[in-house]
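Before going further, learn to read the protein records used in this course. The integers have meaning only within a learned vocabulary of local backbone shapes. The record below shows the convention in full.
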Amino acid sequence: MKLPNNYGSISKLSGKRRKPYIVRKSTGSGGCAIIGYAESREEGLAMLAAYNANPWDIDKAKITLQGLFDLWKEKKAPKLGKSNQYALAAAFKYCSTLNKTPYKQIKAYQMQDCIDNCGKGYSTQSAIKNLWTHLDKFALELDISSSRFSDLLTSTPVPETSRLPFTNEEITRLWEHQTEPWVDTVLIFIYSGWRISELLALAPEDIDLEAGTMKGGTKTKAGKGRIVPIHSKIRPFIEARFAADPPRLISHNGKPVSTTVYRKIWAGIMDRLEMRHTPHECRHTFETLLDAAGGNRRCIDLLMGHVSKDTGNRVYNHKTIDELKATVELIKV
């Protein structure tokens, strides 16, 4: 189907791409602005329709960092997770000295100065670097700048974690004390890999005993709504708690348990059993046990709610519930 004159164009790029269709709009001066990339022609048509209904009217030579950020915040940020949006918005504050500078005039050393002079640690530095990457990509799409100075930026590396997984001996000790109050929750943590907020948020409707699965997750797109099979060793704990018809899987006296309250309960368990671990170290233990047992990396990423670093695995490797169940059952401790 031929598009109307001056409406825009959609072309399919060569090679294997997640979004192979490039969506363009004539600038009226012989140039062409890239509106974005789409997975299908239909998606591209929708992008063009949205753009033509509300054109991004900008002066490419004069648009400042503040102007580009505001436009990016309106057009691109909503596609990101909420936590990522907040982090990038906070990172922008450390770039304020360049707010009135035309974006195409900003150089790599100025971007790097924002990172080096923020006075914060690796997390904030990484967020600032990530923001410049987003803005560079957006500027390229709008034909504002062809430079990708963000590729040259560096930030303080993530420090090695001090978290330690439970040892096999400690897990055995937990099983020996499984009938003591709340010890079952520690074992549920270890054999499912949930974050503390995720486990405490699980409601009865998230538990499918017939299918043998739990569904939940927060924080990232890959982590939300993920399915974790119920390991056979913790199924009796799940069934017992489920049978009480609680508002949440982890409840007390008919009421949900908050993170603050649970951490106090956790501290008591650790003191009684002479252990020194945090709830999050159960998550590390889960991944460590699966990896040590030779679990499929893609399955482990799905269970943990991680985005696979292997593009082939991330895009093309679809795993069934049965395969996830088989992976979970690799834990024999």
About this structure: Residues 310-318 have pLDDT under 50 and may be disordered. Residues 92 and 128 are 7 Å apart (CA to CA). Strands lie at 9-12, 21-26, 32-38, 207-208, 213-216, 226-229, 251-252, 255-256. The longest strand covers residues 32-38.
